[in-house]
Amino acid sequence: MNKAAVAKIITTLIMLFFSIVMIVPFLWMISTSFKTPAEVFRYPIQWIPDHFNWSHHVKVWSGTGSFVPYYLNSLKVAVLSTIGAVSLSALAAYGFARIEFKGRNTMFLVYLSMMMVPPQVLFVPKFIMFDWAGIYNTHWALILPGMFTIFGVFMMRQFFLSVPHEISEAAFIDGAGHFRIFSRIILPMAKPSLATLAIIDFSWHWNDYENALVFLIDQDLFTVPLGLQNFILENNVDYNGMMAAATAGIIPMILVFLLGQKYIIEGVASSAVKG
């Protein structure tokens, strides 16, 4: 066996070890959600309960603090924000990557530098602006800012830069304008990158806790992260119920990743072709 094969096996084993370390807390969380209160602190850990107790999951979905409204609110915020973010990021990235204008690169660097600004710094200006616009304590306070993502523009620009300029030049010769080239030629080629951005952005908005905490007051507007926090505060000794609620909160993320992992790999690979 040569050195390359040995190195590959060692690397695989190391990655497998860290993968197991990362997944153990999730397995414990799911296992605990089906246990009785007496089994939570049993040592050594009993990974598979003697009897699966579904009452905690029933409580999460049908009790007075049902997660159904939180799920609907999170879906509304995450889906609308993601659609807007993907659309606007693609348009902006096309302009930065394919349209020549004076100061383009300087403007992009200034735009990119905004990623270094901590989001917490913007909470007070956002609060003042949202209150003035009348959207404070509404879902629009989360959706509208969520449609603008610097990372999304950067990621899509990297992909558009990798598309040969000869394709655009041939379309220009045939009489096509920028919008037609963007919608008919460039955008269909960018499906993996678009899907990757959509998955990453959806995950971000689904798990967004800080913005929801600052800009939402009414409980009927709460998203899943706030709903989970509210559930924990009301049931601070119900560890099984907390784990059942946490399990309910990560289900969409698991489904999104399982359905889109192929596009994530393709999109990241294609976006890293050219810097």
Summarize the structure.
73% of the residues lie in helices and 0% in strands. The protein contains 14 helices and no strands. The longest helix is centred in the last third of the chain and has 33 residues, at 239-271.
Give an account of the 3D structure.
This protein has 275 residues and is mostly helical. The chain contains 14 helices and no strands. It has helices at 3-32, 37-40, 55-62, 68-98, 104-113, 123-133, 140-146, 150-162, 165-173, 178-189, 191-206, 210-215, 224-234, 239-271. Helix 4 crosses helix 8 and helix 11 runs antiparallel to helix 14 (239-271). It is globular. Mean pLDDT is 83; it is low at 271-275.
List keywords for this structure.
275 residues; mainly alpha; 73% helix; disordered C terminus; transport; membrane; Carbohydrate ABC transporter permease; transmembrane
Main sheet specs: none
Low-confidence stretches: 271-275
- Element-level helix/strand string: HHHHHHHHHHHHHH
Distance between the termini: 37 Å
Structural class: mainly alpha
Residue-averaged pLDDT: 83
What fraction of the residues are assigned to beta strands by DSSP?
Answer: under 5%
User: Percent range for helical residues?
Assistant: over 70%
Question: How many H/I helices?
Answer: 14
Radius of gyration: 23 Å
Organism: Paenibacillus rhizoplanae
Family: Belongs to the binding-protein-dependent transport system permease family.
InterPro entries: MetI-like (IPR000515), MetI-like_sf (IPR035906)
Subcellular location: Cell membrane
Helix-strand layout with pairing:
Elements: H1 3-32, H2 37-40, H3 55-62, H4 68-98, H5 104-113, H6 123-133, H7 140-146, H8 150-162, H9 165-173, H10 178-189, H11 191-206, H12 210-215, H13 224-234, H14 239-271
Helix pairs in contact: 1-14, 3-14, 4-7, 4-8, 4-11, 4-13, 8-11, 8-14, 11-14, 13-14
